Amino acid sequence: MIRLIGVSKIYRRGEVAVPALRDLHLDIAAGEFVAVTGKSGCGKSTLLHLIGALEPPTAGQVWVEGRELGALSDQELTLFRRDRVGVVFQSFNLLPLLTLEENAALPRVLQGAPYEAARQEARRWLTEVGLEHRLSHKPHQVSGGEMQRAAVARALINGPAVLLADEPTGNLDSAASAQVLEIFARLNRDWGQTVVLVSHAPEAAAYASRLVRLHDGRVAA
Amino acid sequence: MIPWFFRLSLRHLQVHPGRTLLGILGIALGTAVYLSISLAAASALKSFSAGVSAVAGAAQWRVRSPGAPLPESLFQEVRRHPQVRAAAPVVESVVDLAGPAGGSLLLLGIDPFLEIPFRAYQFQEGEGLDQEALVSFLTEPRRILVSRPLAARLGLKKGDPLPVLVGARRETLTVAGTFSLPGGLYPLEGAVALMDLAHAQELLGRVGQLDYLDLLGTGPQTGDSLARDLPPGMEVVRPGALGRQMEGLVASYRLNLSVLSAIALFVGMFLIYQSVTLSVVRRRREIGLLRTLGMLPRQVLLLFLAEGVVSGIVGGALGLLLGVGLARAALGVMTQTLTSLYTPVEARELVIQAPLLLQAWLLAVAATLAAAWLPALEAARTRVRAVWHREDLEERLESKAGLIALAGLAALGLAGALSLIRIQGGPPLPGFAASFLILLAAALCTPWCARTLGRGAAPLLRRLLGPAGDLGCRYLAGSLSRSAVSVAALAAALGMLIAVAVMIGSFRQTVENWVHRSISGDIFFGPAVFSTAAYDHFLPPEILPRLRQDPEVADIYLYRCVRLPFRDRYVLVIGGSFEVLAKYGGLWFRQGQTDEIMARVGRAGEAPPAAPDGAQGVAVISEPLAETFGYREGDVLELPTPSGVKRLAIAGVFYDYRTDGPSVWMDIRQFRRFWQDEHLNAVRLYLKDKSRLAAFQTRLQETFGRQYRLLTLSHQQLKDGILEIFDQTFALTYALEGVAIVVALFGIITTFLVLILDRERELALLQALGASRRQILGMVLVESGLASLLSFLLGAVSGALLSLLLIFIINKQAFGWTIVFYWTPAIYLQTLALVLVLGLAAGAYPAWRALQPHLAAILKEE
């Protein structure tokens, strides 16, 4: 379902080139829960950004559901991000202006769904992650764990082919972390949701069905 | 410890110089506009006063007869008076230079021997005044001594001819030499010439007459003692009083410009408020940390106040530089207006007065201090350890929006109460205070209006534009701490623009109607058709009999005007042919029957009225005179005339928009009885066949044009000319408004830049979630469009209220004019179009910036 062929990513800061990924090859099958681990700066987040079409690779190809992302137009990439990918960030990235319900409904609204229908779906997903009592709260009025669970609901609302999670427990205490990771595992187990989770925390990896270790921008043997 | 903290401010300035600089620029522009008006007005008046002092010299007293010449025989009488040490007779007139350079020339007729104790004219040797030149100056007619600056400017040498226009006559004077005045101070920037008294009397048609006598007395009681012994109608004054009277004359004009210029500074204050607020919001974590580390609330307050004040200090200083430059431009416009409305003024050099610079700079600093106070206080109140979320501030502001709006309504109520206060004379300060309160009220209502508009428009725009419309509305309603200030600033500037435009539009329409209704006549003919200041420009006496014999002329209206000091102002006294005027519609009176009033004034011209109230004459007075001094129809006015103080019954009050000087109008026959003066300044001709107008005009020019300089204007030309002067007068007002708009636009551009930059992460997230570029752009444009629309709506409402205040309260109190309110929808539409285009453009650039694809970088951890 996801295939990375000879992918490199080099960041340039002025004269300095910082390689994040080097000639990386990786296959992820549909329904897998993959945990990507490695030291800080090994390219974990970059890998996730490439799969989620948040940035293009410097070299190589990224294939998702049989489509090579480099061949897609700007418009197609936007639709791909909207319809096929759900992203959960370390810093939650909820819009402070919107309630949790509205935040979760946002991708559906952007997809063009009727406002009420989108909110109804959001309520369902928020209930799924245990936030039915926080629907009309704004992000700064709830805890970090609750914010992250709302972000998960938002990532799921459009029925993505792949759920990408970038250090989703990095800002959470252990209890909240466990709750969030449990949700990912349940989604994968019960719904067959493909999940790619990036984390440096060893306990996060324990929830995954497969572990990929990165070292200096390559998959470690 | 304190200076160390300021390093933080400096670092922020280094990182975000643009935001601070825009705030500074706003204050700089506001200061510059304020200073330029102060400097230009002060320079024009200083030049006038310097001229008055230079001509007055050492004179302690001046004998004059307001609005009339003195008989020459009076000189010997005064000279022999026991309280008088020395006396010098003078005739003076402002003539026009006929050469290509043009301009005015003050011609002083003097007796050089009697002048010695008064004025230190330094007659130049060599090229100047030698023995032969002195003899020629004294003995030959039309010989003049010109000032050194004038000689230098026009390149004049001894023996050169100088063509001038004396009233209507073309004359050529000859330069006998040059003179200078100590200190280099001259009236009319040096455009002054001396002529022997007798020759000047002859040239000006004033043989046996003097304009004034300058005196040196034996003691302080000279003035009073002499005044008692003088014939009626004459007065003894201090020469310096002239400068003060001039200041009084233009006081209202000057005050109005000053207040308008202060508006630009007021708008600048919003920018500083916004700049400090943004700084506080951006640095909320830093403040929380500093408070945790032990910084006291007052230190936080000081830190942010200091940032605001430094903006004021720097912006104010920049404003001073800019203001001096602007003042040079404003000076030209202002002297032109003063000359066409009041009296000839020449001021080429800007007088830079340190107190005015200091005043403008201190005003800038005080304005920024006031503007920075509230956000700095907010910062100081940040709780220890509380990381101050911007959302907290937004929620606080959102929850208080209703209360703040109520304060706005209270301000509006106070403005209403202030506008009801009627003042008699003096500047309309309650009216000005009310206008600032109206602007303040609009500003205070802005957060509530933004919240309501954002929430109210959301369902509609969601249906029309989808999520872009919905989010744009929400952002407007949810970013009050930032957007409301900009909206308020732009609303204030637009409000003033609309108010001033409606006021000027209504005023112009009123003047046009007034010209149509109260100025009759087919042709206006004379040396002084436009200027009410050209009292000694006469229609050559030989012309009138020829006009009377002309078979094409049906009627002739005679016009004579003098200006005299009246209480602390000047008053124009006009003598006119009322029976002719009555035939062609008369004047426009504010109450009473026009026919009856005109007939009553006309009858008083035939013979003095036998009035039971002891009135010695009948006159009508202008509305500004009635308003300024509280006269009503039926009252008696005591008017000083050369025949003594005359009690005149006020038959009516007429609308008059010539100048803001009050005027008294009477039948010319009555005028001549009081003034013993047969001169005419102009005539109006009524033709038998109106279709012959153009041909008759050409014939008049051909007949008299070669010999005299006389204006021959048709009614349409006169109307156009009056409106041209009108537009010139308000050119500066428009310029001031333009600057206020520019300052406000800085505000809106900065706001959207900052709003979008602050929200860069959120916009990137939206893109990551699948929002298309079109949706993001649409969202930002909906927000900026709504903000602009709200600015317009608030500006339109406050502008409408302000225009009513300007028209019915401020102008009425300052100038005494009744302006009829004319609804001008075009200005609203133009303003709406302008603000929407600019507002959308202001949002488009940051939106375009936000669309640059750096999603991953932006979404990374801070």
Q: Please report the total strand number of chain B as a whole number.
A: 21
Query: Helix- and strand-based class of chain A?
Result: alpha/beta
Low confidence ranges of chain A:
none
Q: What's the CATH architecture of one domain in chain A?
A: 3-Layer(aba) Sandwich
**Low-confidence parts of chain B, pLDDT < 50 over ≥5 residues?**
384-388
Structural class of chain B: alpha+beta
Query: Beta fraction of the residues of chain A?
Result: 25-35%
Sheet with the most strands: spatial strand order of chain A = 6-7-8-3-9-10
Tally the structural domains of chain B. Answer: 4
Rounded mean pLDDT of chain B is 80
Number of extended strands of chain A: 10
Distance between the termini of chain B: 29 Å
* CATH fold assignment of one domain in chain A: Rossmann fold
| Anisotropy-based shape of chain B | elongated
What would you note in describing this structure?
The complex is a heterodimer of chains A (221) and B (862). Helices cover 36% and strands 28% of the residues of chain A. Chain A has 221 residues and is of the alpha/beta class. Chain A has a domain at 2-93 and 160-219: Rossmann fold (3-Layer(aba) Sandwich), CATH 3.40.50. In chain A, the strands form 2 sheets. A 6-stranded mixed β-sheet of chain A has the order 6-7-8-3-9-10. In chain A, strands 2-1-4-5 form a 4-stranded antiparallel β-sheet. In chain A, β7, α6 (174-191) and β8 (194-198) form a beta-alpha-beta unit. In chain A, α4 (115-128) packs across α5 (144-156). The longest helix of chain A has 18 residues, at 174-191. The two termini of chain A are 22 Å apart. The mean pLDDT of chain A is 88. With 862 residues, chain B is of the alpha+beta class. Chain B has 4 domains: 1-56 and 244-387, no CATH class; 58-238, no CATH class; 389-521 and 714-862, no CATH class; 528-709, no CATH class. In chain B, 60% of the residues lie in helices and 15% in strands. Chain B has 28 helices and 21 strands. Chain B has a 9-stranded mixed β-sheet. Chain B is elongated. Chain B starts with a helix and ends with a helix. At the A-B interface, α1, α2 and α3 of A face α14, α16, α25 and α28 of B.
